[in-house]
Amino acid sequence: MATKGVGMANKGPSYGMSRQVQDKIDSKYDPDLEQILVEWINRQCGSSVGKPEPGKLGFQAWLKDGCVLSELINSLHAGDKPVKKIQSSSMAFKQMEQISQFLNAAEQYGVTKTDMFQTVDLWEGKDLAAVQRTLSALGSLAVTKDEGTYNGDPNWFFKKAQENKRDFSDDQLKAGKNVIGLQMGSNKGASQEGMSYGRPRQIL
What we know:
single chain; mainly alpha; 10 helices
């Protein structure tokens, strides 16, 4: 245990189980998506944000101080900018504070908590795939909102099906009633057979 703790504290090599977990996380990182995100951020923010060295470490270093991310979220707002102060700093707590401001603004913009990375995912490089996921969700929202602030190819991100939400929830309600009926019918014998086929399966 001590060895693992030292490895993590020094951000050196991870050992044992933590190494396996990190390898799994790293395998989710998408180099192709990285290129799209870099291109989008450059179009969105302008050449002043620069471009990273190709690869995961370059991507992390580019975004690590939170300034590029803050510029990005501000560029999606035509009026009042959500991040009032963007200031590059070499101090760790200042960089993490800047990242936090981006995360708060992204959540207000509509990115769900499940799509949100944690500050350490970026700052310590713990899960850069999660960072990609957050930025992809942000891009999808910008395309969907169509407020005239998105700069980039709309095909880079999935458009969220806002107009189908009402119909979908109606279907869910109807299907939900069927599930309840089946549960009431099958629970007498403490059997789960009713849950293994038919309509309930479609909505799970």
